[in-house]
Amino acid sequence: MTQAILITGGTGLIGGRAVPVLAERSEIRLLSRRPGSSSIPNTRTLEWNGVDVPDEALRGASTVIHLAGEPVFGGLPTKRRLDRILKSRVDSTAALVARLSSLPDDQRPDSLVSASAVGFYGDRGDERLDEDAVRGEGFLADVCVDWEAEAVKAEALGLRVVRLRFGIVLARDGGALSLMAPVFRAGLAGNLGSGKQWFPWVHIDDAAAMLVRATEDTAWTGAVNVVAPEPVRNAELTRVLAKQLKRPAFLTAPAFAVRAALGPLSDELLGSKCVVPGVAQALGFDFTHGQLSGALADLFGKSA
Ligand SMILES: NC(=O)c1ccc[n+]([C@@H]2O[C@H](COP(=O)([O-])OP(=O)(O)OC[C@H]3O[C@@H](n4cnc5c(N)ncnc54)[C@H](OP(=O)(O)O)[C@@H]3O)[C@@H](O)[C@H]2O)c1
Predict the structure, then answer these.
(1) Which of 40, 136, 288, 298 has the largest count of CB atoms under 10 Å?
(2) Does residue 196 lie within any of the structural domains?
(3) Given this model, what pLDDT does residue 2 score?
(4) Contact 166 CB / ligand 1 (< 6 Å)
């Protein structure tokens, strides 16, 4: 055990997969709003309010991983929820960096690995979006831009800052797929809107592995797209998922209905983002699940 890593939001989907791996080599401190004992070796849970990092959590930590944030899906897009989605990311990152700045130089962690999302790019048609692409428009793009802007401030304090722009993480027991699979299983699924929009996906194993690499490999810095190397259009996702689950998917959810249900969050499903993992590939990251059919077979193979 050579270092301590402080993780916010480490109890969630991505943290749940990455923490056990990180804990093999480091002491892990999870900041959670619902602290309990962790069953993962070398891991303890500390309480926080979702914004203010307690002093003891940072003591001796070499890296901070910031994953906390109100889930984007899972409720109506009321003004209150949209506000929570924004503030749980932006205010917590600002408070974290303020806390880092209050530490003496020699007691500051070396690195901040902060989550962001491909929502940064907005709705971009067929444009190939690597990390050099400019920001997009819309609520989710605004959230990501403000979120990343707060994280980047830690660079002025001497930290290596990695902004992981996660695509839609595909996992069996959480995230977008666990909401979609029951609809497919009921035979009620189909394309969303035109189905032509690009869908930036990544298998949970690769998302977690990229988080671990970003934490441990100092060559990883700046914005990093956490997506599979082969993005697909929504219609292809529908076809491959339906085939994997052996169900029909002939229906279409019209764009206006998706917009009516999700408001500004509908960009996540209807916006087209042909995002590619330019930085990860340049750094030699080896994807375990680079193709959608293989990724879905891995996740649902036994249940189909
Ligand atoms: N999963 C995806 O497809 C995806 C895609 C793009 C971006 N991301 C981003 O990557 C990060 C991690 O994703 P994830 O899927 O692992 O997240 P998650 O499972 O939805 O949530 C991570 C953790 O955030 C904490 N949290 C939830 N609501 C909060 C709030 N209002 N204030 C403070 N903390 C809150 C919870 O921890 P406690 O209850 O223990 O406090 C939760 O376990 C998130 O910021 C997410 O936006 C994820």
Answers:
(1) 136
(2) no
(3) 63
(4) yes
Could you state, in chain order, the average pLDDT of each consecutive group of 10 residues for the chain (304 residues)? 88 97 96 88 94 92 97 88 97 97 95 98 97 97 98 98 97 88 84 93 98 98 98 94 87 81 86 97 98 95 56
- Give the residue whose CA is nearest to atom 30 of ligand 1: 70
Number of structural domains in the chain: 1
Measured distance CA(93)–CA(146) in Å, rounded: 10
Task: Choose the residue to mutate in 67, 145, 227 for probing ligand 1, maximizing ligand atoms within 8 Å of C-beta.
Answer: 67
Domain interval for residue 206: 4-169+201-228+275-282
Bridge partners (DSSP) of residue 31 are: 8, 46
Q: List Cβ neighbours of 189 (8 Å cut-off, separation of 6 or more).
A: 180, 183, 238, 241, 242, 247, 249, 251
Instruction: Report d(CA 141, CA 186) in Å as an integer.
Output: 33
Which pLDDT score, from 0 to 100, does residue 304 have?
A: 40
Residue 249: its pLDDT value, please? 83
Q: Of 81, 69, 61, 59, whose CA–CA distance to 8 is shortest? A: 69
